[in-house]
Amino acid sequence: MLFLLSALVLPERKENGKLDLGEWYFHNRAWFFAVLFLVPAAIASPINFGFLLFFEVMIAAAYLLKSRRIQEWITGQAMVMTLIYVVVLFLRLPG
After folding, report:
1. Is 25 exposed, middle or buried (CB count within 10 Å of its CB: 0-12, 13-18, 19+)?
2. Taking a C-beta distance cutoff of 8 angstroms, is the pair 25, 9 a contact?
3. How many angstroms separate the CA atoms of 79 and 77, rounded?
4. Read out DSSP for the chain?
5. Distance in angstroms (rounded) separating the CA atoms of residues 16 and 69
6. Between 2 and 72, whose confidence is greater?
7. What is the pLDDT of residues 28-69, one digit of tens each?
8. Is residue 33 within 8 Å of residue 59, measured between CB atoms?
């Protein structure tokens, strides 16, 4: 799934063409978030449920809302929640 996500986000490099990452993102946005929505199902556990639920809501919002401003806000929220998620999981490690 992660390979497929990276293929949707990173375009093939064109030799003589102009590369517009924003255009590529909005071209593949729906497929990206549809696949990303399935990722938590592959790694679900009771400890992660709250964070995964939040991420699922954010993924659904990113899939449904096309505004560039909303996409930027969702990206920021996802970055903050990912950092919190990593810290919480790190603190729960044994030892």
Report:
1. middle
2. yes
3. 5
4. -HHHHHHHHSPPPPSSS---HHHHHHHHHHHHHHHHHHHHHHH--GGGHHHHHHHHHHHHHHHH---HHHHHHHHHHHHHHHHHHHHHHHHTS--
5. 31
6. 72
7. 888 988 888 887 777 666 667 788 888 888 888 888 998 999
8. yes
